[in-house]
Structures are given as structure tokens and as C-alpha cells.
Amino acid sequence: MVIVLANSKGGVGKSTLAVHLAVWLYDRGHRVALVDADVQSSSSVWLQEAEPSVTVRSSRTPEEVVGVVRELQRTHDFVIGDGQATLDDQSRTLLLLADLAILPVTPSILDVRSVQQATATLRYAQELNGGRPRGCLVLNRMRRRDVISREVRVAGSSLGADLCASQVRDLQAFREAAQQGNVVTRMGPRAAEAAADVERCFEELLLKMEGTDE
Ligand SMILES: Nc1ncnc2c1ncn2[C@@H]1O[C@H](COP(=O)(O)OP(=O)(O)OP(=O)(O)O)[C@@H](O)[C@H]1O
Ligand SMILES: [Mg+2]
Question: What is the CATH number of domain 2-210?
């Protein structure tokens, strides 16, 4: 299965969630690979530090990303793509290869217009690809006071994406994990809240993919 973290907005948590998802799936016994499409290579460096047994590859062009994803798919259960914050051809290609697109959204862009922009490439891929990939908006860096407007809640389906019910809170443990080259699900009690958030979210996403949540 190919899962791509996508959003043309920068700094919404694509790399953070990509690394966490990769290690979480690995810890559940799956063969996992990550394709880093970002020129900064932040997720591949982080992931190699966190779990060297996960295959990490980078790619810079649409042609390269097709080859790399297809090759990794043959030998891995999950190929995770960490996209760049652009609408370039490589980001579009990654989405065309995906079964599931996870679109992290932060409170700073929690209005319908921004979410509409963030999902534009997803709809482009779905239009070309007979409705694939399935899209899921994940609310990330949420604080207690953040309000999700009714419009955003209902906008999802018309924008080609479901809204994941499990939200990921804005927690210091995520920043520490990045600094330490680790993941919150392996950091013990001090990161328990953060670990619970990503676990709930990933479980929900996988259930959706398996179709048991239909
Ligand atoms: N749930 C969270 N709680 C606290 N900090 C977070 C959370 N998720 C991400 N961050 C922090 O937000 C910043 C941006 O996250 P990240 O690099 O994962 O975003 P990105 O979408 O990959 O960015 P880019 O578009 O630049 O690739 C990082 O400093 C990261 O540590
Ligand atoms: Mg990133």
C-alpha cells in the first residue's frame, strides 16, 4: 500500500507524521519504506536515526519517484511518501501513485478556503485516477481552544477527503522527538499523550483503508 503525506502548505506536520507512521507500522511487524520527495531530506535523516531498518530513499523528479515507488512496492508492505510543500510535478505524481493520501491540517489554515487549496492536488489526482487515492484530513497541532468550524467539518467530502476523527494535539514531545531522532511512540511515559494521539489516528486511517469503517 502506498500512503502519501501531502499538503501544499508548509510546516503542517507532513514529515513528522510520515516518520511516526513509518516507525509505528514497522513496530507492528510490517516491511516499511519511506520515499522522501523533499529537497531538505528532513524525514529521511530523522527516520534513519530513529529506525535504521526502515528503507529510506529520496527522489527528486517525477520520473524518479515512479521508479522508486514501484520498485519498493514489490518488496515492502507499506511505502510512505513524504511530499514537499509545493504543487510541483513530483508531488502530483506521488499522489497519483497513492492508495491513501493523508493531509495534515493545522489550526492556522483551518478555514474552508485554505483547506480547499490544500486539497486541490488531491482532487486533481482523484479526477485522473478514477477517485483514487482516498484522502483524509488529519487535524494536527490542535490546542484545546481551537475550534473547527462546521464548514470545515462538512467540507471534507466535497473536497475529496474525509476528516479523521482522531486529532493530534500540539505537544512538546513531537518537537523533542525530532530533535532526538526518535518517535513519541518509543519515548515512554513522558510522551504518552503524544503517542496515544498518533496511535489513535493511525489506527483510524488503517481501518478506513481496510474498508471496515465504511
Ligand atoms: N503535533 C505536533 N505538536 C507539536 N509540534 C509539532 C507537531 N507536529 C509537527 N510539529 C512541529 O511543527 C514543525 C513542522 O512540522 P513538519 O516539519 O513535520 O512539517 P512539514 O509539513 O513536513 O513541513 P514542510 O512543508 O516544511 O516539509 C516542526 O518543528 C515539528 O516539530
Ligand atoms: Mg516536511
Answer: 3.40.50.300
